[in-house]
């Protein structure tokens, strides 16, 4: 599932109403797939991996092709994750889901640390809203899907049209990274059973793999203006937030140079548009 300011709504309309407008909605698709192959080969790999191409194409609407493609990649990653029982990685291959982590404390318990009206908090952490609110393995599923999503959106900047308007492509991944970071922080502070479980080598390896991929994608997008997510990234750069996760992955949670640049830009007032 992807928080969409437009795309998800359009996709629902396509599914819900079998009207004659289907042709104009899909007319861009051959060129869009060509652009994906040319500009984002890793995103195209996701399309190729889908057995049922219609499941990918259902999300590829024509009003904003950059958003349509990155959303189709995102949703397809979820489908592949279910099929493989593993998280597909951007650079190829996959890492197995660990079902034991479903017994860890439910991610919805960290919602209090965030603005409850935030779209991502509402969608992914609110009780009853999504599997990710109840089960850490689905929070990782979203982290991975948003990594693929932003990786493709970043590569597809060339096909963005001015009249498509601004879409916060970076905000989803930055939000999910913040949730994972706070999940580790809360585990270390208040949830001894989960914190102990997180120390198991295979769990640490999974967290390190998915986090490193996410952080790499986030940083690669950093130079692109109007991709959003600054508020979450500021929190990600706060050492107090990241200490527990840093302990789990045995390294920096965020690129120190980027966080230093962010702090300088913030104090100078030039970070935001
Ligand atoms: Zn999703």
Describe this protein's structure.
The chain is globular and about 55 Å long. It has a two-stranded antiparallel ribbon with strand order 1-2. 41% of the residues are buried. It has one domain (7-268). The protein contains 14 helices and 2 strands, in the order H-H-H-H-H-H-E-E-H-H-H-H-H-H-H-H. The chain starts with 6 loop residues before the first helix and ends in a 5-residue tail after the last helix. A hairpin with a 5-residue loop joins strand 1 and strand 2. The protein has 273 residues and is an all-alpha fold. Bound molecules: zinc ion. Residues 1-2, 74, 78, 142, 145 line the site of zinc ion (ZN).
State which percent range the strand residues make up: under 5%
Total separate domains: 1
Largest sheet descriptor: 2 strands, antiparallel
Q: Could you give the distance between the termini?
A: 28 Å
| Strand elements, count | 2
Mean pLDDT: 89
Ligands, ions, cofactors? zinc ion
Poorly predicted spans = 6-20, 269-273
Structural classification: mainly alpha
Order of helices and strands: HHHHHHEEHHHHHHHH
Helix content: 55-70%
Radius of gyration: 18 Å
Number of helices: 14
Shape: globular
Keywords:
single chain, 273 residues, mainly alpha, two-stranded antiparallel ribbon, 14 helices, 2 strands, globular, disordered C terminus, binds zinc ion
How does the SSE layout of this entry go?
Blueprint lengths: L6 H10 L5 H5 L2 H11 L1 H9 L3 H5 L7 H20 L1 E3 L5 E3 L22 H6 L11 H20 L13 H22 L1 H7 L2 H20 L9 H7 L2 H11 L6 H13 L5
Antiparallel strand pairs: 1-2
The structure holds zinc ion (ZN).
């Amino acid at each position: 599932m992807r928080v969409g300011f437009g795309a998800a709504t359009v996709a629902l309309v396509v599914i819900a109403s079998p009207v004659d407008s289907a042709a104009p909605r899909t007319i861009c698709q051959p060129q869009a797939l060509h652009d994906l192959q040319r500009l984002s080969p890793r995103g195209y790999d996701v399309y190729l991996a889908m057995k049922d191409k219609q499941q990918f194409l259902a999300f590829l609407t024509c009003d904003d092709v950059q958003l349509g493609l990155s959303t189709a990649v995102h949703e397809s990653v979820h489908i592949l994750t279910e099929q493989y029982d593993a998280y597909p990685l951007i650079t190829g291959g996959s890492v197995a889901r660990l079902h034991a982590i479903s017994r860890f404390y439910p991610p919805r318990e960290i919602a209090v640390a965030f603005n409850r009206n935030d779209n991502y908090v509402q969608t992914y952490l609110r009780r009853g809203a999504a599997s990710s609110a109840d089960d850490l393995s689905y929070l990782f599923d979203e982290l991975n899907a948003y990594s693929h999503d932003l990786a493709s959106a970043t590569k597809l900047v060339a096909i963005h049209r001015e009249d498509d308007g601004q879409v916060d492509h970076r905000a989803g991944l930055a939000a999910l990274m913040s949730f994972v970071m706070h999940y580790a922080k809360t585990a270390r502070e208040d949830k001894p059973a989960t914190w102990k479980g997180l120390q198991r080598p295979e769990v640490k390896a999974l967290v390190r793999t998915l986090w490193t991929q996410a952080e790499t994608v986030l940083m690669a997008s950093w130079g692109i203006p109007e991709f959003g997510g600054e508020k979450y990234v500021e929190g990600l750069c706060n050492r107090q937030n990241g200490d527990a996760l840093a302990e789990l992955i045995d390294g920096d949670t965020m690129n120190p140079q980027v966080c230093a640049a962010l702090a300088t830009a913030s104090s100078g007032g030039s970070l935001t548009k």
